[in-house]
Write a structure and sequence with these properties.
Two copies of one chain form a homodimer. By secondary structure, chain A is of the alpha+beta class. Chain A is built from ten helices and twelve strands. In chain A, a hairpin with a 6-residue loop joins strand 9 and strand 10. The first copy, chain A, folds into two domains: 166 residues, Ribosomal Protein S5, domain 2 (2-Layer Sandwich); 130 residues, GHMP kinase, C-terminal domain (Alpha-Beta Plaits, 2-Layer Sandwich), CATH 3.30.70.890. At the A-B interface, strand 5, strand 6, strand 8, helix 6 and helix 7 of A face strand 5, strand 6, strand 8, helix 6 and helix 7 of B. Strand 8 of chain A pairs antiparallel with strand 8 of chain B.
């Protein structure tokens, strides 16, 4: 790695948040990829090393590479970049693995170039990396990874992103069943049409969740964490989903749902204690299934991608 | 009217607010019905007088009567009520005429009984009156009429209502074409299914509008006032709709859409001056059509139904 490189932390993210399919997402604290990115005199993007996952080293086949190339093409920088990735987020886990790499790459290159691009432009570049992973330029993971906190993609065309207030006591618990579930598979299970009635309930819940977040009304947040459209279909692909939901809500969680396109599931809780209690309940529930899994409990990451801090960032 | 009666003002309301079909609504200032309501020793509800519109005097056929009866049945009061209604809002105008009568009746009776019921219960009673008018117990007009400001119906079953922050500079302009358009007709034009793609855009806009309202981001409010599902169908029933939109946006309005199920249309503006300018543009646009119409410009009513104040309330 060239001496001009910077080390960064790029967080895992949860997209959808039950009712907000394709529009809502949040960033996690303490769970994310570490990347080192440097400028080089040679044009183009070079992936010099990937640890932690078996991913393509060719820049044009790698989400971080594609995202960084999109940024370089839009900039007037004549040189190139070299990227080293320590994957901590397993690809296919449903907590924004590809988004973390794409967001981290564009954030770091933008930083090294003197920040010529706005966060919204960075989301656009990173979403092109996402398109490589999922077939569509989704931004519901890259937006929270770059902005931190809780974000809303109001519109994809044109791209319009809003930050939503993050209540201080909101904690996230994750359970990642170590099974393979491709985003493209979990998208193909969806139906192209929905009833107007279900649509009304869904946008009522999105309005309720956003209102609950801004007013720190945890009861309203809890009641709004409902998805009658996507979850009934996708949850069929996740072993033990209904038992996990019962375990989470029984432990006092505000709500429970699928993280992104799964297979990871998440719960939101009021306070760290309830989140840790929820984690224990999910562990007890899943221990009986014989499927390997991991769990995490995390606060919400307020900052998004940031410079790596050896003192406070612990690779998990 | 018995001496124990109270005089109240019950505001007109705008339901839907473009993207928030069946869930969002706001209350208007200065436009509303005046009602006088008193307790009587005789059980039941009696409508003693209605001026300003040709509406049924039989309590069980009148929205205010049905709503008041629902409240009385849930209370332990042994007597009855007598209601006098001065309609200022034309039935079928699309600005919550029946909702104003229903909301006003239950608010007044509750007040006279010492406020045994919460605002949410009052919405439930008033929605039963609404069911008489439109065939379904809608609450997107009665909720803002009773709560004031901007409200969200997160869920109808169970009823769940949230208040949304009201940016101080938000003004409403209305144009009411004096044509008849029944709620049941404008509901029957709707399709029972929508594409998932349009649903996603709609709940993105609801999230954007709510976020814009809480953060007083007028640009975001403007971009979110979009409805790709209901408006393309219902606007066909409103003469000159697209010209009116052009006139409103050309005058600087943040957004333009159908009020409730129409035929009234509304625009939201930042500041009273722009709202008045928008009103002039709508008038110029509609003058050429040869259809009688009325226009109003109003702030948002923060309080909802209130005691009538001779000094400040002007019947229009």
């Amino acid at each position: 790695m060239e001496s001009s490189g910077i080390a960064i932390f790029s967080p895992a993210t949860i997209a959808n948040l039950s009712c907000g399919f394709d529009v809502l997402g949040l960033a996690l604290e303490g769970i994310g990829d570490r990347m080192t990115v440097g400028l080089t005199p040679e044009p183009g993007v070079r992936i010099s090393r990937i640890t932690g996952a078996n991913l393509p080293m060719e820049a044009e086949k790698n989400v971080a590479g594609v995202a960084a190339m999109a940024l370089l093409q839009a900039s007037d920088f004549q040189g190139g970049v070299v990227i080293e990735i320590e994957k901590q987020i397993l690809p296919g886990s449903g907590i924004g693995s590809s988004a973390a790499s794409a967001a981290g790459a564009v954030w770091a290159v933008n930083k090294l170039l003197g920040e010529p691009f706005s966060p919204k432009r960075l989301v656009g570049f990173a979403a092109l990396g996402e398109a490589l992973a999922s077939g569509a330029p989704h931004a519901d993971n890259v937006a929270p990874a770059l902005y931190g906190g809780i974000t809303l993609i109001r519109s994809y065309d044109p791209l319009d992103i809003a930050r939503i207030h993050c209540p201080p006591l909101l904690y996230v618990t994750l359970l990642h069943p170590q099974i393979e579930l491709k985003t493209s598979d979990s998208r193909s299970i969806l139906k192209r049409t929905i009833t107007l009635e279900k649509g009304i309930r869904q946008w009522g819940n999105v309005g309720g969740l956003v209102t609950g977040l801004f007013t720190e009304d945890y009861g309203l947040i809890s009641r709004s964490l409902e998805d009658g459209i996507i979850e009934p279909l996708r949850s069929l692909l996740i072993p033990g989903f209904e038992d996990l939901r019962e375990a989470a809500l029984g432990a006092g969680a505000l709500g429970f749902g699928i993280s992104g396109s799964g297979p990871s599931v998440f719960a939101l809780s009021r306070g760290e204690e309830t989140a840790l209690h929820t984690e224990q309940s999910l562990i007890s529930c899943y221990n009986s299934l014989g499927i390997p899994f991991k769990t995490y409990t995390s606060a919400i990451n307020k900052n998004g991608v940031r410079l790596w801090n050896e003192q406070t960032d612990i690779l998990i």
